[in-house]
Amino acid sequence: xxxxxxxxxxxxxxxxxxxxxxxxxxxxxxxxxxxxxxxxxxxxxxxxxxxxxxxxxxxxxxxxxxxxxxxxxxxxxxxxxxxxxxxxxxxxxxxxxxxxxxxxxxxxxxxxxxxxxxxxxxxxxxxxxxxxxxxxxxxxxxxxxxxxxxxxxxxxxxxxxxxxxxxxxxxxxxxxx
Length: 177
Description:
The chain is an alpha+beta fold and 177 residues long. The chain has two domains: 66 residues; 97 residues, Alpha-Beta Plaits, CATH 3.30.70.60. It has four helices and five strands. A hairpin with a 7-residue loop joins strand 2 and strand 3. The mean pLDDT is 83.
């Protein structure tokens, strides 16, 4: 047995042994790291599909009633159970949790007389790494259902500097109850 292993090692050489080791590491990585993530992706897709079908059923039943009821259900989505300051606190805490440097932001309330939905436009200058900024924006969008990401402007001062300055523009939507 030992003689066969030594013969195999001589036949393969260091390149063959390295290749076999890489193949083995790839299989282990696939099993340990990728498979759980793939299962999570499938789970999230199923949840999303269930939510879409549930929402579709609700919209269909509302449409059968009347357009006024359907419009009221639409506006109900934007009735916030939280204050704007609570949403802002969440945004700031997510920025800090992602290690971003926040500078003073600009805020603007936009109300149209003919519309029930009020917009609260938020412009945040941040500085940090690209992955930190990306993670932050994803967490804000996941954590606050009534917010949209309107724009991100990146400014990279020096090619070797991993720090990026960005101007992020969000809009919070709400209906006063």
